[in-house]
Design goal:
557 residues, Immunoglobulin-like, single chain, alpha/beta, 22% strand, Rossmann fold
Length: 557
């Protein structure tokens, strides 16, 4: 455990606390990403809050400078019963040091939640509507964003009148009211597990594998609401049915964000399990992104009602706890079900045979799998810059024995147009075969910021990271660690250099020293992110749910 010479500052005004942390960088610092968390401790409960970090020059050398402005009523999902202490955690890459020797006590009264219950008043809604142009103009002058101005104006009217203009919020409120109704009308069904998602489960994904395992268990009653619609698209009938299923479930299992669930006051007998859809951590997400554009505010209740989050290694528990605003004790390294098949040699060989039968032109060729992530804010505006990767320029000169599979993120719907001479060697399999299966017949994965890198490490596939917009991506999304240090493969930002690097990798012309360095990075990568994976994740998670959630009641803290 590292030792830090540090000092802290605290300033409290009303129910807002300004935290400052200053520490000397360790002498053996090697350029790792530095992150600092303020940890609010209440006996066995905690909340990890991300701080803004800078490395600045001080009299004694480089210093860590971290600050945070925290609204205390939103720190915990429920007001604390006991005194709260603030301590700090410093991360160098994925090495964490918790500093407990200077706890700062805060009175529990300062954490009392604001009264957010809204009383509906149509008269106020009419007045708010008449004032809407003024509110929008006022907000626009402040932040110069049309979208943000409209959202803020809508929120103001909602707080004032209990009504708003958002179909999503109206349906969420209706769903919440129906859940409260059913909680009073029906009891929890013993040993009932509800699988919940607003998109169809991916074949072989975490949700699908756990659901199938539960179906095979005669002691478990499986129900599901897997409707590929957002809450704003669901009908009143669908909202009522979803609310009814949630009210009678002993356990609700997710693998992604399900927004309307976090509007509920979940009954104590029901537990929520978040399998999440990816291994490890790479891009920042959830509350780790507080303060960035388009991110939910500190008052948001998103994610906070999880009782169990399953992760792929011990090292990432503290990061998931921060991202979901839950205590680290609820984050357990039980594995990632989607990776189980990657330890099954019979499965892998069978899938290779199936894929070669399906795409015979790939057999006997060197196969490049190009699988970048999307740009944009989400499903509605997702894209990949077409000028960043010209498939014809890329294929030119690579050799007749090279094929390329293009596998865009499911959110991206852009057709590629290879020249006729490459048509039989370029396949666009976006939205088709699972990317993990395609890796089984690939000689090289080219990606950027995609979570597919975790499975690629498990399979031992060479990787090339084409990060042409790395700096822009860091500004808008950011990473939990230094990108170049994290990437378990070569990193190139220029198209021509990326193409040449791909050629060298395929032809085994890379430098021996560079390969040794990458092998070392891959070993560290496995330790940091994948150490809980062994082909038995699905079985382990289902056994944990049965043993800890179905056979006994655990009072919700």
């Amino acid at each position: 455990m590292r030792k830090y010479n540090y000092r802290t500052t605290v300033h409290i005004e009303d129910t807002t606390i300004k935290l400052g942390f200053r520490a000397k960088l360790p002498d053996d610092y090697k350029g790792e990403k530095v992150r600092v968390q303020a940890i609010f401790m209440q006996r066995s409960l905690e909340r990890r809050f991300p701080m803004e970090v800078e490395i600045v020059e001080g009299e004694a050398g480089p210093q860590i400078k971290a600050d945070a402005l925290v609204e205390l009523p939103y720190v915990f999902a429920n007001p604390p019963r006991h005194k709260v202490n603030v301590i700090y955690s410093v991360w160098l890459g994925f090495e964490e040091t918790i500093l407990k020797d200077q706890p700062f006590p805060i009175q529990k009264d300062l954490f009392e939640s604001y009264d957010t219950k809204r009383t509906k008043n149509m008269g106020r809604f009419v007045l708010g509507t008449l004032a809407l142009p003024v509110l929008i103009l006022k907000n626009y002058k402040k932040n110069r964003s049309k979208t943000a101005s409209l959202k803020e104006a809508n929120a103001t009217v909602y707080d004032y009148s209990g009504y708003n203009y958002s179909p999503r919020q109206r349906n969420t409120d209706y769903f919440s009211s129906k859940y409260d109704h059913f909680v009073k009308q029906i009891d929890v069904k013993e040993n009932n597990i509800l699988f919940l998602s607003e998109r169809l489960p991916e074949e072989g994904g975490n949700l699908a594998r756990v659901m199938e395992q539960c179906r095979q268990d005669k002691e478990i009653f499986v129900s599901k609401f897997l409707v590929p619609k957002t809450v704003s698209q669901l009908s009143r009938k669908e909202l009522r049915e979803c609310a009814r299923l949630c009210a009678r479930a002993r356990v609700i299992v997710l693998e992604d964000f399900y927004p309307q669930l976090h509007s509920l006051t979940i009954r104590p007998q029901t537990k929520i399990v978040q399998l999440w859809h990816a291994c490890g951590v790479f891009k920042t997400f959830g509350y780790s992104r507080l303060g960035k554009p388009g991110v939910a505010p500190q008052s948001s209740m998103n994610h906070r009602n999880y009782d169990l989050v399953t992760v792929s290694s011990e090292a990432v528990r503290g990061i998931y706890a921060e991202a979901f605003a839950i205590t680290v004790g609820k984050v357990k390294p039980l594995g990632a079900p989607r990776t189980d098949v990657l330890f099954d040699q019979n499965y892998k060989e069978a899938r290779r045979i199936e894929l070669y039968e399906k795409y015979p032109q790939l057999e006997g060729h060197k196969v490049i799998l190009f699988a970048p992530t999307f740009r944009g804010d989400g499903n509605k505006d997702a894209y990949y810059p077409e000028d960043a990767f010209d498939i014809n320029l890329f294929m030119d000169g690579l050799g007749e024995d090279v094929c390329c599979i293009v596998k865009h993120h499911p959110f991206v719907h852009q057709e590629i147009q290879p020249d006729e001479k490459y048509a039989d060697r370029v396949l666009d399999l976006t939205g088709k075969d699972h990317i993990n299966d395609l890796m089984l017949i690939s000689d090289l994965l080219i990606t950027d910021y995609s979570s597919s890198v975790f499975e690629a490490v498990l399979l031992g596939i060479p990787m090339l990271f084409y990060a042409f917009d790395k700096e822009d991506y860091i500004r808008s999304r950011d990473f939990y660690c230094d990108y170049d240090s994290f990437a378990p493969g070569y990193v190139e930002e220029d198209f021509s250099k990326m193409k040449e690097r791909a050629r060298k990798i395929l032809n085994h012309e890379t430098e021996e020293e560079a390969e040794a360095e990458i092998a070392e990075k891959r070993a560290q990568f496995f330790h940091d992110f994948l150490s809980a994976l062994d082909g038995k994740s699905t079985e382990r998670i289902v056994n944990h749910i049965k043993g800890e959630m179905l056979t006994k009641l655990v009072k919700r803290r």
